[in-house]
């Protein structure tokens, strides 16, 4: 069972805590949880919530992603969609 973007949606912790229901229904199904931003406390919470096995492997890396770039585009509230569409059309 893959679980992705945990850090991005961390404010949805209640929904993630309900994943323990799936764990109870399917105890033998492997779980892959993916996030680039979980803290040690969040990893522990996830481990406890999903009742991960003691021999669970954690692969940790850096947040440095040289293949990604960010750009801030200022736009007026009423033009958000048209600005986004124009940006995509101009760049792809």
Structural write-up:
- With 92 residues, the protein is mainly α.
- It has one domain.
- It is 37% helix and 4% strand.
- The chain has helices at 13-17, 19-25, 40-49, 80-91; strands at 2-3, 32-33.
- It is elongated.
- 3% of the residues are buried.
Structural class by SSE content: mainly alpha
Beta-strand share of residues: under 5%
Quick check: average pLDDT?
76
What overall form do the CA principal axes indicate?
A: elongated
Give the radius of gyration. 18 Å
Counted beta strands? 2
Give the count of helical stretches: 4
Order of helices and strands: EHHEHH
Number of domains: 1
| Major sheet: arrangement of strands | 1-2
**What is the helix content?**
25-40%
Distance between the termini: 33 Å
Parts with pLDDT < 50 across at least 5 consecutive residues: none
* Main beta-sheet annotation: 2 strands, parallel
List keywords for this structure.
single chain, 92 residues, mainly alpha, two-stranded parallel ribbon, elongated
Write the topology of this structure.
Blueprint: E1 2-3, H1 13-17, H2 19-25, E2 32-33, H3 40-49, H4 80-91
Parallel strand pairs: 1-2
Please give a quick description of this structure.
By secondary structure, this protein is mostly helical.
């Amino acid at each position: 069972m893959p679980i992705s973007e945990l850090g991005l949606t961390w404010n949805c912790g209640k929904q993630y805590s309900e994943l323990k229901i799936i764990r109870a229904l399917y105890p033998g199904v492997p779980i892959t949880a993916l996030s680039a931003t979980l803290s040690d406390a969040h990893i522990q919470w996830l481990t406890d919530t999903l009742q991960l096995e003691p021999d669970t492997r954690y692969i940790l890396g850096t947040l440095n992603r040289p293949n990604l770039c960010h750009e801030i585009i200022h736009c007026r509230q009423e033009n958000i969609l048209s600005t986004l569409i124009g940006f995509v059309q101009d760049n792809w």
